[in-house]
User: Which sequence fits this backbone?
């Protein structure tokens, strides 16, 4: 799979989960895909200070990304500065 195909699969996964985040006043942005196995995202809006954002990241975002792109091993939330 090319980098472009992988990125499009990850973007499709984020589009699938985005409405759930937006319904709570948040959002998510794809920052990078490294080595074809690690996705870096940034939770935005209400998701930044949310106490359950790590659970959202693991059970929602990571699971959805792995469903679309099984070769992804890690999803990391990069905190805004």
Assistant:
């Amino acid at each position: 799979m090319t980098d472009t195909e992988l990125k499009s699969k990850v973007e499709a996964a984020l589009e699938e989960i985005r409405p759930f985040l937006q319904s709570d006043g948040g959002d998510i942005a794809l920052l990078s895909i490294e080595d074809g196995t690690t996705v870096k995202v940034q939770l935005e809006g209400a998701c930044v200070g949310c106490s359950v954002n790590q659970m959202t990241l693991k059970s929602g975002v990571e699971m959805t990304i792995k469903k679309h792109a099984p070769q992804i091993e890690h999803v990391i939330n990069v905190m805004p500065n």
